[in-house]
# Entry
Amino acid sequence: MSKTYHLTAPLSDEDVVQLKVGDIVYLSGVVYTARDAAHKKLIDLMDEGKELPFDVKGSVIYFVGPTPPKPGDPIGSAGPTTSYRMDSYSPRLINEMGQKGMIGKGKRNQEVIDACVKSKAIYFGATGGAGALLARQIKSAEVIAYPELGPEAIRRLEVVDFPLTVVNDTYGDDLYKIGRAKYEIKDVG
Amino acid sequence: MREVKYEDIVKAVRDHIIYSGTNLSKDALAALNKAYEEEESPVCREVLKQLLENADIAASEDRPLCQDTGLAVFFVKVGEDLKVVGGTLKDAINEGTRKGYEEGYFRASTCVWNTRANLKDEIGYNLPAIIHFDLVAGDGLEIEYAAKGGGSENVSRATVLPPAAGREGIVEFVKECVSNAGPNPCPPIIVGVGIGGTFEKAAISSKHALFRTVGTKNEDEVLEDMEEELMTKLNNLGIGAMGMGGRETVLGVHIEANPCHIASLPVSVNVQCHSSRHTSFKL
# Structure
């Protein structure tokens, strides 16, 4: 049976190893946003041996490109984007920099799933298309790098009880495969 | 000759874009409610509940339903006896798009294909719109609009099957497309299928099929039967809302078919996420 947890980012090994696919997590604390364009820049900095714009160790990165905030709001609508576009970047951030969490939607490749096992990290799913609802859980947003990328800039978010489901855990399991197998009806004859 | 003012078109386009980006279309909302009632998977029920809450919040607070406010896609029927005064129809639609996206606090999501630089400062906020014109008899002007998100567009596919593949080949191609897409296009999805014509005609038909009201039947009996068969087969895949495993994977299958070359059977599948933001209006 799935369990419910309340966790605060940045995350530790102890936080993540208790989680299993299908568990519900309400995440609070600091989360950083990055999509593929920002990920590429982070990897380039790593290749050049330069410092990254935020402390990746223990961090949770949210794959999101929000709409512009309306006056007085911290952020616009902010649901997850499709995560596979980050597949070529995430393993290095997890294995070499100690990233502990990713928030997105959709399938990850085997390299990402392997990195989650090897270096103890979690891939969380948030509900795609629920951008107005999810934005309510974001209390502040500040662009900390690459403002020229517009919606794809890296933002530091403070979130409270951000609703997530564990899709890939530190044991190599995949909710998309397990969940689908449970409900699939094979064609007869 | 009937005359329509340029600025009236701009205003109508702008207003419809903002309204449909913040108020989920009635047909999609009804289909999501039905899926929520019928879903037996607890994790998918929770997802569907969030989506219904999201639609409430977006409508009551005038917020975009989704951060991916899409590219603006239009199908426009222009009467041959209609004249736009004060500018061109194409410019009016583009200007309405720019205003709608900018003034609605929607995301600027168009970029240069290779440098990926956002085009908002160069040619205008979320421009150019994707516009399909059709010249028709009379003096009417009918505009169908949808905001098309990237996640569901990315799993769409087109092919040209050998004629021998027939109906069965088409069903298999659609099934394979939706199965491979899995959680990525934000299910529960609407599946647009274009059959026949040429390669690009099938693709455009599959896009236009998404504009049909969810829950309505196809007027063609053969296509209606195919749609029902596909609904069952696609829901049997077990993908469920956001791919978490469940019964409600597809809100609708819409097929449009055209005559085609004796050598070919073009097929295109265009996928629409659950956030189906579409509308139509006449001027």
Summary: The beta strands of chain B are 2-5, 71-79, 82-85, 130-136, 141-148, 157-161, 189-197, 250-260, 265-272, 277-282. Residues 23 and 56 of chain B are 8 Å apart (CA to CA). Chain B has two domains: 2-19+65-148, 151-275.
